Amino acid sequence: MELEELSVTEKAAMLSGGSEWDSRGNERAGIPSFVMSDGPHGVRRQLGAGDHLGLGASKPATCFPTAGTVANSWDPDLAEEMGKALGREAHDLDVNVLLGPGMNIKRNPLCGRNFEYYSEDPQVAGRLATGLVKGIQSNGVSSCPKHFAVNSQELRRQASNSVIDERTLRELYLTGFEIMIREASPWAIMTSYNQVNGTYAHENKHLLTEILRQEWGFDGTVISDWGGSNSAVAAVKAGGSLEMPSPGYTSVRELVGAVKAGTLAEADINVRAREVATLAERTRFEGVGRDDLLSDDVIKTHHEIARHVAENTAVLLRNGSADGTVAPALPLKPGTRVAVIGDMAETARYQGSGSSKVNATGEENLLDELKKMGGIDVVGYQQGYERHGGKNSVLVEDAVALAAADTTDVVVAVVGLDERSESEGLDRSTMAIAEGQNELVKALSATGKPVVVVLVAGSPVELPWFDDIASLLYIGLSGQAGASATARVLVGEVNPSGHLAETWPLKYTDCPSSGWYPAIGRDAIYREGPFVGYRYYQTAGVPVRFPFGYGLSYSTFTYSDLSSDENGITFSVTNDSDIPGATVAQMYVRGPQGGAMRPDRELKGFKKVFLGAHETKKVTIAFDRYTFRHYDVVPGTWKTETGEREILVGDSVVNLPLSVRESIQGDIDLCPPNPVLGNYLKGRVKDVTDNEMTALFGHGVIAPGKTTVFGENDPISSWVDSRGFVARTIAKTLTKREESVRRKTGQPDLNTLFILNMPPRAMCKMTQGMIDAAMVQAIVKIANGHTFRGIGSFVAGYFRNISANKRVEKELENK
């Protein structure tokens, strides 16, 4: 039977999940259901029903480095290798659709989910995601890149409206997705929770139809984030294919009712159902063995791949001083007597918290791995600090005693962020690491022994002791094999080649959006425009701790012989040392003088270059559709200005020893910027006026005040301001419970955080059909202080909902 021959009810049923992780198939049309699973850096095949946050047990799988760490490799081929392993495990664990990679732009370093995202730059995000998607789908498993689009904060994540100007939206926040869609052709994509300029992402026609499908040519399935669908009817009209997890039959009833009322065409349902059916067919595994558990061979092989990825992502941020007053401490010389200090050296932290958390097939710690390394002597270990606590002078004193001992030559101190600091559902409150750890590092440095800091964190932190240490190795969140990879880097068996995929500011207040992030109200206004990360720091002349693209090596490299033509650039890179190594060659473009407003320079291409000792290689980076274009808002299309560009080449955004000018013949003349943009023209976004922001956005932008009348899209957390005692008590109780659990366990209470961030309308989407839209409105009455009226409406709606669901279920069974 053809899909179009099915009843409207049957086709509508295919557009929402049948359970927490499964789609609904249709036997009559031969359409199987398919299984979805979290998996940006490891397959989280959940064993229990109704768990989308990783609170329960999941099948063992390899935990690879997180996206924010993988991005430091600047190597799409490495990402593809990792993707192939991820796809193989998804296949073996009975997963058809792997929910990843996460590729939102890192707007601010405090976003709790930054460890799951690649970069502040769309070129890096797009190219790395392309590699991962290709690798995953080579196994016949669909990737599902996320979160489309403009998802930049965890606070109020299901009830936040990202207000952004069209040019910034297109050039910065969507270009990474565009690169990945055009080059990797994913079979699915996940929409974000938030609204984009007032319309929820899963029902945003501008995003899903005009840009994603019509402009980029996406032909796959658009899946909502879990609970992220708002209106099933609006989603179908706009281009949303499948809402997850399972609203029971509530959405089915809404869609059928809209068709009967003439407000939704059956043809639209046919298109969306066909998209779901196509994904089911693309990921069908008939006749292929699937063990449902990983074999010993896969576990061993993939652990080694995870180590290989981690080795290529470690970033050497300091090794001695530029003036020679501090000698390099790495690699550790044969015979070095090493004191290992830090709780995270004994109990590794290698992934973030939330839905991406993997039940790893194995674990390592740096203390044990260093003991295995030949040629060095581990003379002792001290905890150094309370992992989740405050200051502990006894632990510091014991660590200092070990460091100062005559038997110690070098101190390796492992510090960083704990499990509470980086998590889905919770933004960081500070860029600082725990004060107890800062005091430890300062005390260790005061012993006069060389201190090597191994830094564990998924995003930038402040480093008040940076000038006091000998060496700093940043390993990010390096996955289950990160400890052995780190040990190999420390002793020189691996030459570090990672480069930072995001800028590290000196202090949080230097960040362009620090004054308005995260938005505590409904509207998150992106008033900084395109000046995010290095685009801001370079344009506004703000000093940073580490620039975008920065990374040291045990080798030294020389760039030379740059030339260009209409197709691209060519240059040479030489390894000047006796040690084989790799560098990341980066191409930046500076726009034509007198042209449209732009940041001072923008990354437009890169290539990881592997070189033997004293080897020279010619490197070519081609120009492409993204190199010289800008988005012209007035005609609503991409344009290229005719004029001279400066092409700059080097190994970071600030170290660009080569430059050449190239005249570009575009399709328009130079477009002088609107002088009313004022401070934007020099990147001084912290000084912009309301008039200048109006000029950027094309309309006035006013942040709303405190919510006093609550709707179905206001989060539960906002009920603390409710006039109703019951609603106010619910919000305050949940807030206190989450804080208490975090203090006691050292882990965020993800379930409570999810509820606090959840608006009532999501209850309709997350309860397997137990709550429908009418019951949501009853809950809203309670939020607004009409407690008894709301409870009465809720109870009456409950029984009506049960009857309506039974009718739909019976109709489907009779088919």
Automatic annotation (TrEMBL):
GO BP? carbohydrate metabolic process
Boundaries of each Fibronectin type III-like domain copy?
583-653
Q: Which family does it belong to?
A: Belongs to the glycosyl hydrolase 3 family.
Please indicate if the UniProt record lists Ligase as a keyword: no
- Give a GO molecular function annotation for the protein: hydrolase activity, hydrolyzing O-glycosyl compounds
Q: Which InterPro entries match?
A: Cellulose_deg_GH3 (IPR050288), Fn3-like (IPR026891), GH (IPR017853), Glyco_hydro_3_AS (IPR019800), Glyco_hydro_3_C (IPR002772), Glyco_hydro_3_C_sf (IPR036881), Glyco_hydro_3_N (IPR001764), Glyco_hydro_3_N_sf (IPR036962)
The identity of this protein, by name, is Beta-glucosidase
Q: Which domain of life is it from?
A: Bacteria
